[in-house]
Amino acid sequence: MFIGAHMTINPLSSVPSRTLKIGGNTFQIFSQSPRMWRMNFNEKEVEKFREEMSKTGIDPTKVMIHASYLVNLASPKEEIWEKSKNRLKWELEVAHRMGLKYVNVHPGSRVGSSEDEAMERVARAISEVLKDSPQDVKLLLEIVSPKGGNIGYNFFQLKKMADMSGCEVEFTYDTCHGFDGGYDICSKDGMERLLEEIDKTVGMNKIAMCHLNDSKFPINVHKDRHERIGKGYIGREGFSNFFSYKVVHSIPMVLETPGGDEEHAEDIAVVKEIWSSLGISK
Ligand SMILES: [Zn+2]
Ligand SMILES: [Zn+2]
């Protein structure tokens, strides 16, 4: 089983050893500040990072970069759309230079356009970006919460965008975003509905990653607020139901829960307790 957290990168080279310290064996990072368009690349630090990766033995094919929050591939505004494509291209290039397999992105927000227009825009952006990006890095579209004009809040939409792009993309399931959009992983019925929808659309083998987050709000309220594992409306019992399905065991789990390394270590311990209680061997 693979588990880890979204890690801060000061400095980047500390991430692999800190991951082991909190009980993880994978992680997610921002390549730099996710709220600034500025793009930096520190050659020396990346070299050090690659050395640390091999020292710790963390498998880089289970690690992802989360693209900047500024990226909006659905934007009807030309300038934002161009900047978004450039930034995403750059994130893919950085992942390649770091030796990491995945870049995860939110499809985008429609800002006044229709959902169909937004999906076409996202698909076009993906095909333009991936046309001249490194082939060894996979783009992941993340399921989002159905709030604020977000597109990609179910697997029908994610599949449609992927198909229209004509590109080989894969997907990230976020347990908080899904819960916020009505996927009830706490119940047998809810899990079966989710797995059936995935089977009918993108296929389970294309769910490359999972963001493991509890939710500060009840199901289907469209607020998208992550909570620490076991302390929200999904709760230990909800995650216990989720992990009782073997199909999710091969997917690396990455926490995006509030707090830093200390809190993440506690949350990872909670997840491992849940696994133990289900008889899942780590
Ligand atoms: Zn995300
Ligand atoms: Zn997420």
Order of helices and strands, N to C? EHEHEHEEHEEHEHHEEEHEH
CATH architecture: Alpha-Beta Barrel
Summed over residues and divided by their number, the pLDDT gives a mean of 97
Q: Report on the biggest sheet.
A: 8 strands, parallel, barrel
Query: What is the gyration radius calculated from CA atoms?
Result: 18 Å
Strand content: 5-15%
Q: What is the spatial order of strands in the main beta sheet?
A: 1-2-3-4-6-8-9-12
**Percent range of helical residues:** 40-55%
**CATH first level: which class?**
Alpha Beta
CATH topology annotation: TIM Barrel
User: How many discrete domains?
Assistant: 1
Distinct small molecules bound, one entry per kind: zinc ion
- Count of helical segments? 9
Would you count the extended β strands for me?
Answer: 12
CATH superfamily: Divalent-metal-dependent TIM barrel enzymes
Helix/strand class: alpha/beta
Low-confidence stretches: none
Shape: globular
| N-to-C CA distance | 5 Å
The gist of it:
With 282 residues, this protein is of the alpha/beta class. The protein has a single domain, classed as Alpha-Beta Barrel (TIM Barrel), CATH 3.20.20.
